[in-house]
Amino acid sequence: MPDGLQIAVVVLVALLVGALLPLVFSAFALVKQARRTLADLTRRTIAISERGEQVLSHVEKIAEGVEGELPTLRQTSQRIHELGTSIEQLTSTVHKIQAAGTILGPAIAAGLNAYRVVREAQEQTSSPAADSGPARNPTSQVHETPAGEEVLPDAVHRAIMAEIRAQEGSGASPGQEEGSKDA
Question: How many alpha carbons fall within 13 Å on the CB side of residue 73?
């Protein structure tokens, strides 16, 4: 081979090596950076995996605790339901008692008023001569009809009727109900 050709080949090889050398260094640096990045990602992945395992173990412990407490939670839920049912029944009973009080209240008031009127009448009519004989209490005397029905003394009956009429005059609903039953 001639010297010129050898020089040309050497120059071309030198150019080729000179051009490839930066590429080789660049590839080496790229591989080195890739190794560092891969090592960093591996460390992070391992840390995340360990953290995930810790979280999973905590979740498993919580699940075991919930499973252990499940019968208690069911009993608590059932008792809360029973309590709600009891409260509903109590509310219903209170409404019934309230309705009975609304109906019976005026009747009791009329009876007490009648008793008061009879007591006042008794106090007004009592005299020393009457005290010497057997005691006569108009509230304790009950008359019987020929059919055997008991009838209140006249004074008590008049007092109750006066109270009912007074309630009817004031627009009280129990007196109006009483009047509608007679009609």
Answer: 6
